[in-house]
Design a protein that fits this description.
By secondary structure, this protein is of the alpha/beta class. It has a single domain, classed as Vaccinia Virus protein VP39 (Rossmann fold, 3-Layer(aba) Sandwich). Helix content is 42%, strand content 19%. It has eleven helices and nine strands. The chain has a seven-stranded mixed β-sheet with strand order 5-4-3-6-7-9-8, with helices on both faces. Strand 6, helix 6 and strand 7 form a beta-alpha-beta unit. It holds the Pfam family Methyltransf_11. This is Class I SAM-dependent methyltransferase.
């Protein structure tokens, strides 16, 4: 374990008041990480292989959907776009502002948020395949969209250069979450928002992560599943004040049934293309597990 203190411009991203808290929360969530944590190259290669498969199963997006309740019969495309809209609403953007999408996937969420809100979105990914797909979307909104290959651990942008930042199912892949969140805090101006949407762990009565959590993390190339409370502390230590934490795990569970149905019909084709296809049992484990949930966290950058 290590703690890195970064000084950017004239403000301290992790001031010494937070050192004890960072050490405490870092030890807790590192106990939940994979045996072999994925590198940035590993994650990029993973999404080069699986992006098309998951996009085909998730209505063009590469993230879960949101259903209001059990009676909601929305299609997977409507449900995944709905989650994108929930992220966009929480960014509270004004027309003309500039927001960063960390882990932009194939660019569909960035395109939707940009065109629906009249804002500029820069998206970054470490998957060359996803970057090529995202760049195709620039043709529809050349004045609003920009995509590039970049690592969340070393964002190639100046301090305070964005009005907001969002990360949909990307931070979970990053082993060094402290550095990644610190970089997000660095590039967002004071008063700008961070919106985070991702799977999180749920500790058992013994205070430990269950075996299902570790197995699911390995299947999804996830570098540990901190709990919502642990993410809250990490986000606050990165210079943000957390405004809202919403557990929407029950609203996202239908995603795995939809994905399973599509993969049953298409698994042979995707396997022939060399893609890693999860089996029915693995998807059912994700759907039914009480060791994981899904949260939306909204935070605002503090003035230093």
């Amino acid at each position: 374990m290590r703690l890195e203190v970064y000084i950017c411009s004239d403000f301290l991203l992790f001031d010494f008041i937070h050192v004890e808290m960072l050490l405490h929360v870092n030890v807790q969530w590192e106990e939940m990480t994979m045996t072999a944590e994925p590198t940035s190259a590993d994650v990029g290669a993973y999404y080069d292989r699986v992006s098309d498969m998951f996009a085909a199963a998730m209505g063009g997006n590469v993230h879960v959907g949101y259903w209001h309740d059990e009676s909601d019969d929305s299609s997977i495309e409507v449900a995944t776009d709905r989650l994108t809209d929930m992220v966009g609403e929480r960014l509270a953007l004004s027309q003309g502002q500039h927001v960063l999408d960390v882990g932009c996937g194939n660019g569909k969420p960035a395109h939707r948020i940009a065109t629906r809100n009249g804002v500029h979105v820069t998206g970054i990914t470490i998957s060359e395949h996803q970057l090529r797909q995202a760049l195709e979307r620039v043709k529809d909104a050349p004045d609003l969209l920009r995509f590039e290959l970049a690592d969340a651990l070393r964002l190639p942008f100046g301090d305070g250069s964005f009005d907001g930042v969002f990360a949909i199912e990307s931070l979970g892949h990053i082993a060094d979450k402290i550095t990644a969140l610190g970089e997000m805090g660095r590039i967002v101006r004071p008063g700008g928002r961070l919106v985070f949407a991702d799977l999180t762990g749920v500790l058992g009565e013994d205070g430990q992560a269950g075996k299902e959590t570790e197995a699911s993390a390995q299947m999804l190339m996830v570098a540990g599943l901190p709990t919502a409370d642990q993410y809250r502390e990490l986000i606050q230590a990165a210079g943000f004040d957390v405004l809202e934490v919403v557990d929407i795990g029950e609203n996202t569970r239908k995603t795995y049934d939809h994905v399973a149905d599509v993969l049953k019909a298409t698994a042979a084709d995707f396997k022939a293309e060399g893609q890693d296809v999860p089996d029915d049992a693995e998807l059912e484990e994700l759907s039914d597990s009480d060791e994981m949930t899904y949260v939306l966290i909204t935070a605002v950058r503090r003035a230093e």
